[in-house]
Amino acid sequence: MIDKAAWSQRWERIALYLTFGSAVAVFFSIAVCHTLLALSVVALLVSGARLRFPPVKAPLAIFFALTVVSLLLSTDPAAGRPQIRKFFVFLVLLTVSSAIVRLSAVRGVVVAWFGAAALSAVWSLVQFAGKVGQARQAGMRFYDYYVSTRITGFMSHWMTFSGEMMVALLLLAALLFFSPKARRYWWAWTSCGALIAVALVLAFTRSMWIATAVSILYLTWFWKRWLVLAVPVVLACGLLVSPASVQTRALSMLHPNKNIDSNQHRIVCWRTGWEMIKAHPWFGVGPEHVGMELERYLPADIHPPLPKGWYGHLHNIYLHYAAERGVPAMLALMWMLGKMLLDFLRRLSKLPPGASDARFMLHGGVAVILATLVSGLFEVNLGDSEYLYLFLASMALVYNASEPETTAAQ
Q1: Is the pLDDT reported for residue 204 higher than 70?
Q2: Is the pTM of this model over 0.85?
Q3: What's the gap between Cα 362 and its chain centre?
Q4: Dist CA 320 CA 314 (whole Å)
Q5: How far apart are alpha carbons 214 and 230 in whole angstroms?
Q6: With contact defined as beta carbons under 8 Å apart, do 111 and 100 qualify?
Q7: By residue range, what is the domain housing residue 342?
Q8: CA 194 – CA 190 distance, rounded (Å)
Q9: Do residues 298 and 272 touch, judged by C-beta distance below 8 A?
Q10: Is residue 293 in a domain?
Q11: Residue 407: predicted pLDDT
Q12: What angle do helix axes 244-251 and 230-241 make, rounded to 10 degrees?
């Protein structure tokens, strides 16, 4: 006779390990991450455990449905299939919600993220040193050489790498500010934070710099409100003592270097996206069709050759999803993010005073959402599988950490 209880417990434990491994692997390999994600779904189904899902089913279902409709109405449905396959990434909401249910396990995943991010940061610093040498060998000014070939850590692109560093840094700051256990290994947390912060700065991703600063201000406001005034001063001092190339990158937000910085090509993308939205407000031009259709929708006063940059998407999640899948689909996505934000703020208001892991996770979750919304003004961050996975996993962890039965048992 098979002991059903023992069978179920064994497979629940396997699902936990696979989900944990998948969550950590996102910092190293998306292929390994997705493989473990698929296996964790299988393990959960075999275990017979109660399946859980964050309370965002309605907006997510509408977003999926409108994406499918947009695909079917597009000029080339086959071209948009990668976006349908990307629905798979959203299974992380199911696996993390169902397998990482204990507060100790939630804390373990987040701590593992700090270690993984720090390792990726260390490797990125090695890459940075190599870039300096390569620029010298090429006889080029470092800034001119580096902007198009930046550090990536274990990822394939600096934007993905920067997004992961940003999420890890914000959760780590929330831990230091609001967790009762932060003092025990403060030296380890601050060391990881310093490595991650330096790597984020050297990645030269201005959108992530702005988003991180906004979310750090939020965390500081709820930690020690009087320190909020000091944050801009610290940032300004940091900029003054930073290398010349970092200063040049920061100033490029207002005074871009022509054909090096991406300001002008983003403006072209945004204006073209608006033309797409006006022409197809309900269902967009179709998933994966923005880059294919871009020349058709260029404003009348814009002519090739276009400013140097990437034109495969619109560098703004609000414009991109509205142009690609229609305004209703974009609003459904914003509904999901807004619901998460309001849920976390409501749960924060119900917590008893004092530091707690629930408070640290909830504030960290709010900070990550704010950073995603801000950086999304300049980049299609949620279109990146690695960033999307990490964002969704962190949201599911926050929901689990703040459940009443979990917080009562911490």
Answers
A1: yes
A2: yes
A3: 16
A4: 5
A5: 14
A6: no
A7: 56-259+314-408
A8: 6
A9: yes
A10: no
A11: 46
A12: 130
| Whether the Cβ atoms of residue 393 and residue 237 lie closer than 8 Å to each other | no
Report pLDDT for 410.
46
pLDDT at residue 1, as a whole number: 52
- Which amino acid does the sequence have at 305? P
Closest C-alpha among 128, 140, 113, 107 to residue 200: 128
Please check whether residue 39 lies inside any domain of the structure: no
State mean pLDDT over 110-115: 97
Looking at residue 14, its amino acid is I
pLDDT tens readout for residues 376-387: 999 999 999 999
Token digits of residue 195? 């490595």
Distance CA 327, CA 335 (A): 12
How many structural domains comprise the chain?
1
- Amino acid at residue number 318: Y
Amino acid at 51: L
Tokens 């409709």: give the residue: 69
Helix (H, G, I), strand (E, B) or coil at 10: helix
Question: Is 83 part of a structural domain of the chain?
Answer: yes
Say how far apart CA 358 and CA 404 lie, in whole Å. 10
CA–CA distance, 364 with 297 (Å, rounded to integer): 40
The CA distance from 156 to 163, in Å, is 12
For the chain, the distance separating the N- and C-terminal CA atoms, rounded to the nearest angstrom, is 37
Contact by Cβ (8 Å): 323, 314: yes
Rounded Cα–Cα distance for residues 148 and 388 (Å): 24
CB-based contact 272:313 (threshold 8 Å): no
Q: What is the dihedral of CA 188, 192, 195, 197, to 10 degrees?
A: -130
Tens digit of pLDDT for each residue in 234-283? 888 888 888 889 988 988 888 787 777 678 899 999 999 999 999 999 99
Does residue 6 fall inside a structural domain? Answer: no
Residue in this structure with the two tokens 């493989």, named with its chain if needed = 35
